[in-house]
DNA sequence: GCCAATGTGAACGCTGTGTGAACGGGGTCC
DNA sequence: GGACCCCGTTCACACAGCGTTCACATTGGC
């Protein structure tokens, strides 16, 4: 596996902690050169199973998939990236002109493409734009909902201008809720996406954390976290707004 | 103003009623040729005010903005398209390689770009992909029938813009009905497909849930669920033409 | 008018969730 | 190194919501 992930590298002022996924391994020289020149961290993988095993804990920043040489496996990786609870956003295909017609059947597998041979500046601009789009909504260092405000960098939380004293797990759970409002999550989903691993036993653990969160939010805001009986929990108002739109 | 909007033109089988906005007017010949060849309806405009005045009632399907000749006005149009209540999604810039560095400051003004001179198939693929994305829209996985709307992600239901308070089983049953309208199901079929297992006894259970659903839908919409005597229940139109499935 | 099928109201009992408390591992401070 | 404390997890129990069932009323077809 070819790794070039330098934690904490800066891309025009924005901290970019997550690496890009690159296929294949080793990548074409010009691609390596472009990424290095643009200071974009990446990890190259040779197949799907390697991709899964080296995925960073906080996910991929995106992916550049070279589909010229080995379209079969390239599209296979795309499919794998799109699956699961949290599909990878920002999949960029590198193809040659002859493959343009193949895209039509695979619109769902990518977010952008670039024709090879490519202009390094063009590829860089496309990667940058994908990351702009990905980072636009969710990731700013602060988030909130109504009277609730979270500072993701300092791990502080406030509600109605009063600071909340949360433990690590409580904060992570609340953060997840804030960044995924209105949607219902089962306990198992919460365990795998907040706790971050497949959990053995103890789905009731979620209940306890929810209870403590509600208690700390105060009686007035306890209803921010609603129980959907025999399904799971939902964060946010009863009236529905579609999340985006 | 150059118009080429043929209502109801088909783009690979998908009905595309809305036209693309093109700048400038007249557009470069190769662009016209590409759009015509791909059967993509469009309206060319020379400036922002014309664009505003000729906007179709149901909005633009997207926009292709040529920024090579007149970047000033080109980006001005982009800005105008992004403003307002319903910003245009699917703005594609046509630029030359020298302008790549300018994109960095304008990430918010476009969704994709294409280097000029361009490969007609590439431009077509990009337009198609933008429209695929737009059509998929912000997909809050929703379903509905008439005034009834179900949000599958939030487990919420509304009818006539009023929220419905449904229990788990009621919601699941209604969801099944909504996703299988106009078809008659026996109680046994409903039990096995909604309850999800071969059920012992209690076919009357379905009756009770149907009754409660009707009650919660309100007198006005209670007839959404019709009983077909000695067969089962059917959801949807009183009309006897049952369209699909 | 008879019988079968369905609507209706109410009661039962189970399952899911809230709640209090205890356990135990990891870290910190004497 | 031992005695704490914090916090994530687990357990036992209580309660309430809800799915199910039953008895009875009503409807509709023959």
- Order of strands, widest sheet of chain A: 1-5-4-6-7-8
Number of domains of chain A: 2
- Number of DSSP strand runs of chain A: 15
Give me the oligomer status: homodimer
Largest interface: A-B, 34 and 33 residues
Mean pLDDT of chain A, to the nearest integer, reads: 86
The residue fraction in helices of chain A comes out at 25-40%
- Gyration radius of chain A, rounded: 20 Å
CATH homology-level superfamily of the largest domain in chain A: Response regulator
Q: Do you know the CATH architecture of the largest domain in chain A?
A: 3-Layer(aba) Sandwich
The number of helical runs of chain A is 7
CATH class of the largest domain in chain A: Alpha Beta
What secondary-structure arrangement, pairings included, does this model have?
Two copies of one chain form a homodimer.
Chain A: E1 2-3, E2 10-11, E3 14-15, E4 20-23, H1 29-37, E5 42-44, H2 48-53, E6 62-66, H3 71-82, E7 91-96, E8 112-116, H4 120-138, E9 142-145, E10 148-151, E11 156-159, E12 162-164, H5 168-179, E13 184-186, H6 187-195, H7 204-217, E14 225-228, E15 232-235
Parallel strand pairs in A: 4-5, 4-6, 6-7, 7-8
Antiparallel strand pairs in A: 1-5, 2-3, 9-10, 10-11, 11-12, 13-15, 14-15
The structure holds a DNA duplex (30 and 30 nucleotides).
